[in-house]
Amino acid sequence: MKSITHILEKSVAGERLTFDEGLALLQSHDLVAIGKAANAVTTRLHPEPYRTYNIDRNVNYTNICTAVCDFCAFYRGPKEEGGWVLPREELLKKVEETVALGGDQILMQGGLHHEYKLEWYEELLQDIRSRFPTVNLHAFSPPELFHFTKLNGLSIKDVLERLKAAGLGSIPGGGAEILVDRVRDEMTRGKVSTDDWLEVMRVWHEMGGHSSATMMFGHIETLEERIEHLERLRQVQDETGGFTAFICWTFQPDNTRMDHVSPSGSYEYLKTQAVARLYLDNIPSIQSSWVTQGLKIGQLAMLYGANDMGSLMIEENVVAEAGTVHYLTLDEIRDAIVEIGFEPRQRNVHYELMDPEHEKMAVEANRKWLADRQVKNVYELV
């Protein structure tokens, strides 16, 4: 196979990679060299002596969804058994618990509900904002937002302006999967197209908003399509500069209609993330996906292009439905960062460091919460 040394040297030096060069890296088996180059780029972009993490909670307000996604174990159709909408007070209780543990953000997503108009979502945001004015509402991925336009007969700008006025703070990059319509059309029905996903983000960025970008890979896509996904993100970022971070993870096939697909392993995950760091030269941060990969690979990912350990994830439901359950305590996340030679620091959605006193409070609150839960479990066993 052709040497990739010149491609890696080019990226480390700060030069932009071409599509074919990105593809050559994905086709290469030299994981160590690719990882070393990705770490060098991360060090150039983030020379600071710390690495970051966040504390938030993934609150799913409903699992009822009109889209049919073969890769999703979470959703239920409108007429299927097992569909639910989270009661408002229960949702607010989850936010309250998150704040008590030092969290400053709620990651709120749900299925494409067939009945709820935009007013329902505005009231949801307003209810949370009135009770918890300092909590960032990182909510509604592009498939949801595009669905709102269809259900309400509004433009995406109108939808975003109304939700922003109601309290929307930032947008998660969910529902991207692979931003190539061949892949999307084969795996899902009734969901946003590539161009529409990107347009939602473009309009939000033009309004001054920030969002993350994601990729779920290791299913039916080709390596060329992985690079096409990264290229489309890079193009939008050139236009808007609104993506704060990129997060990728491997497809989790259990309990889905695609359970015949062999799951990708840690090698493929680390290589793809490292290539993403080299290719996405205009997206400042890369987030490790310990939620799907576990502690040790999540920690190793911090040397393969990532500068952020992601979130404590007080609650996560979508990946868990596919049988992948990795839980880390706050101390485990912080220790993982220390073990690779960095100071752990809590950050907000904009990658700004939290006040040290807040950070200390969060550490102590999480230790107490964990101790209380262990005591409760002991009593339940007696």
What does this structure look like?
- With 382 residues, the chain is of the alpha/beta class.
- It has one domain: Aldolase class I (TIM Barrel, Alpha-Beta Barrel), CATH 3.20.20.70.
- The protein has 16 helices and eleven strands.
- The strands form four sheets. Strands 10-1-11 form a three-stranded parallel beta sheet, with helices on one face. The protein has a three-stranded parallel beta sheet with strand order 2-4-5, with helices on one face.
- Strand 8 (243-250), helix 11 (266-279) and strand 9 form a beta-alpha-beta unit.
- The longest helix has 26 residues, at 356-381.
- The radius of gyration is 20 Å and the shape is globular.
- The N and C termini lie far apart (61 Å).
- The relative contact order is 0.15.
- Mean pLDDT is 93; it is low at 316-323.
Helix content: 40-55%
- What is the CATH class name? Alpha Beta
Task: Give the biggest beta sheet.
Answer: 3 strands, parallel
Q: Report the structural category.
A: alpha/beta
